[in-house]
Structures are given as C-alpha cells and as structure tokens.
Amino acid sequence: MTTTTPTRKLKRVLRVRDGLAVTVGIVIGAGILGTPGLIAGYLGDPLVILAMWFFGGVVAGLSTLVLAEMAAALPEAGGKYVYARYAWGDTMGFVAGWSELIVTRGFSGASKAVLISAYGFRLVTGESAAPDGPWVGIVGVAVVLAYFTLHTRGLKTSTTFQNVTTAIKILIILAIAAVGIVGGSAAGASSSSMLVGEATAGLLGYALAYQSISFAYYGWEDAAKMSEEVVDPGRALPRILLGGAMAVMVLYLLMNVSFLAALTPAEMAGSELVAADATAAVFGGAAGTVVLVASLLILISSANVNFLGLPRVAYGLAQHGLAPKAVGEVDERGTPRNALVMISVWIGLLALTGSFEFLIRFMMTVAITVDTMVLLGYFKLRASMPELERPFRMPGHPVLPAITILLYIAILVILVSTQPQLAMGAGAMLAAMLVAGIVTTRRKAVRSTSSA
Fold first, then answer.
1. Is the Cα dihedral 294, 298, 301, 303 positive or negative?
2. What gap in Å lies between CA 62 and CA 74, rounded to an integer?
3. Beta-carbon count within 10 A of 19 CB
4. What's the CA dihedral at 368, 373, 374, 377 to 10 degrees?
5. Confidence at residue 121, expressed as pLDDT on a 0 to 100 scale
6. Do 77 and 225 touch, CB atoms closer than 8 A?
7. What is the mean pLDDT of residues 346-368?
8. Which pLDDT does position 2 carry in this prediction?
9. Helix/strand/coil for 151
C-alpha cells in the first residue's frame, strides 16, 4: 500500500483528559436532547424505555472494547477507516472512511446544527417549537460557518474550547438529572403505558427506538480518529474509549430517570426538548428557559467535535491515496484546512434540509452496516496480523467479541426487515461508495505500477 506524505504532520498533543473531553463532548448532545420524545412515542412504557437505553449502553461498551484493541494496535489518524483498510483492503477502507464523511458524521453534524437553530428560535420566540419554512436550515448553515471559523485557529484552540464546554456540559447534565429526580413526582414510574395515541407497535417500535438510542450513543469511538495526535496512544486510547463510553451510559440513565420522574411517557412523546419540559413541570416555565439555554451549551460542545474528528478522517484517507491529495495537507496551525473546508460545506448543505428524525434514521442504518464490517475486522486482523503489537487486548476473546458482532447483525436484520424503503436507500448509497472505492483503488494500483 503506497502512501502520500504531506509537507506537515499532525502533532501529538492530546492526553487522556483531552480524549475523554472529546468522547463525552461529541456523544452527549443532540441525541439525549432531541430523541427522548421520539423514543417515548415509540415505546410508551417507562421500564422498556430505561431498558432500551441500558441496552444501547451495553452495545456501545462492547463495541468500544473491540475497537480499543484495534485503536491501540493501529494508532493512525482516521479511526474506523484505518481498521477496515488494514483488515479488508483499500476498497473497504474507502467505504468506511467516506461513509463517515458523507453520512454518519456529516448527517450527525447537520442534525446538531439543525437542533441548535431550532432551540435558538425557541429561546428567542418563546414558542414550544421552531417555525416552519427554511429558516431553521438557514440558521443551521450560519452555525456551521461559526465552527469552521473556530477550527481554522488550530487544534490547541479547538481542544481548549472542547475541554471547557465539556466540563460545563457535565455539570449541566448532572444538574438537570438532579432536578427531575429530587423534585419530580415519579410521574413516569407510575404510568404503565402510553396514554395518548399508541406507542409504535411491535418490532418496528423497538427498531425506531434503537436507531434513536444508537444515535445518542454514537461517537464513543471518535477519539480514535485523532490517534496520531494522542500522547502514548497504546495506553491512552483504551482508557479514553472505555472511560468515555461508561461515563456516557451513566449520565444517560440518570437523565432518563430524571425525565420519567417529572413526566409520563405520554407527556414526553413528541417533545422537541424533554429536558426543558421536565424542568418546567417541576419548577415552572422560567426554569424551563434556563434548561433551554443549558441545552444550547450542550449542543455547542457536541457539534464542535464533528469539526474536530471529520477532517482527520479525510486526512487519513488522503494519506493512503483514497481522497484527493489536497485534503491531506496540513496548515501551519496543524489543521487539515482543505478537509475542514470540504466537511463544512457538506454539513452546511445537509443542515439546509432543516430535518432531524430522517437524518438520524438514515444515518444510523448506514452506520450500523459499516460498523458491522469494521468490527468483523477484529477477527480478520487477529488472523492476518498475529505479530501486530497489541498494547490492549479484548477481554473474553473470542466469545465476547463474537457476541458483540452477532448483536450488530441481529440489529441490522431487524432494521432492514422493519424499514425496507429506508434500507434500500441506505444500501444504494453504500453500493455507490463501493463502486467508487473499486474504481479509486484500481486507479491507485495503476499509478503505483506506473511509478515503480
């Protein structure tokens, strides 16, 4: 495999605390703020809601263990793209990397920009929902431009911003959880089922809920994209990945217990911001406004990491000839500037849709498919590269990683069987990426042969 060496390299400046801030920063945001109302409408029963959030945390934790071994052994910029490439070759590496750029992280960044815009409108107007029309998308584009400007200042500036906003975020999350748990009337716990309409029936309801929950947990692996900038990655990356995933699960369960202490699932269903509604139910409308402001701070921290991680994926692709050479160039501040421009334009275009639920459903169908392929690479790497130094090894090998992968396959089967049209759209996009990957890698091979 030939590589292209840019004039400047990424710098190893990130420590465990920075990686934890990145992990918690990107994971806790649009998911826990925007999806609880959707999930309550899908499931209806408070115990089932909590069980599904716990299940999502278990899947994320198991996935983290598998990925931690690969991340520690292959500490290169790009994250999951790197592991897919080493395990399955350049073509599948292309699919993994570009699916993150175009779909999973692109859609995620856009959904966060949309929520920031919607919550901003709610704060300014005092209405319970954002206005109809294009304005949410237009303001979302302005949000993207603000992040682009911040990240042109260099990695030190953007990670300092991330550390500060993540610390604020954790304090806010704990405060919101305490408000519901201490001041709530256990409304959700006393409600056995949905009281308005009906929860989405059967397997489809669980599938829709899991898509939203997996979106809320998504990003547990994002610090791995910055492996080339982590000090002592063999030791630090497993701590970052595992510590971040577990911290997020605990905070999410606390948040949902808090919501269900203040509201019934019927009252949660359809709410754009359950945290504000739950706080207002306990302390009144003014307190709900305070939480709305706090939620905006949480989203600002979360969206920031999309602009930290995605340029590093593009940089990693360019390093191996799977993206334009210009995308792999690093400026004098240590920022992959051209990659940052590319992803900012794409996220801005997606934000113009002003959508949220569709963005996350499509995104997670693609993401779970690609993640299944990446996690299967764990066994492939064990077989094809047994000599590879592995500072961290997956516990319970081979049973526990096999269970993790079987869970992914089962989830994928359920998603496809319950949402065939969405699955067809996601499949068509992945097929197009596969064709593009085949063409790109063949051209790369021809160039390598010609230069030999």
1. negative
2. 19
3. 27
4. 150
5. 84
6. yes
7. 87
8. 44
9. helix
Quick: pLDDT tens for 269-287. 878 778 888 777 777 777 7
**How far is residue 231's CA from residue 181's CA, in Å, rounded to a whole number?**
39
- At 239, list the tokens: 């701590």
Q: What is the DSSP string of 183-215?
A: H---TTTT--S--SS-PPPHHHHHHHHHHHHHH
Helix (H/G/I), strand (E/B), else coil: 14: strand
Predicted local confidence at residue 6, as pLDDT: 45
Q: Residue 194 — pLDDT band, cuts 50, 70, 90? A: very low
Cα-based angle 253, 396, 379 (whole degrees, multiple of 5): 105
R_g of the chain, CA atoms, integer Å = 21
Domain formed by 16-388+402-446, architecture: Up-down Bundle (1.20)
Q: How many CB atoms lie within 10 A of CB 408?
A: 21
Quick one: which H or E segment has residue 167? helix 155-183
SS3 state of residue 214 = helix
Query: Which token pair is 260?
Result: 């269900």
The dihedral sign for the CA sequence 249, 379, 91, 234: positive
Residue type, 273: L
In whole angstroms, give the CA distance from residue 81 to residue 87.
Answer: 10
Listed in sequence order, the DSSP H helices in 28-99 are 30-34, 36-43, 46-73, 80-88, 90-99
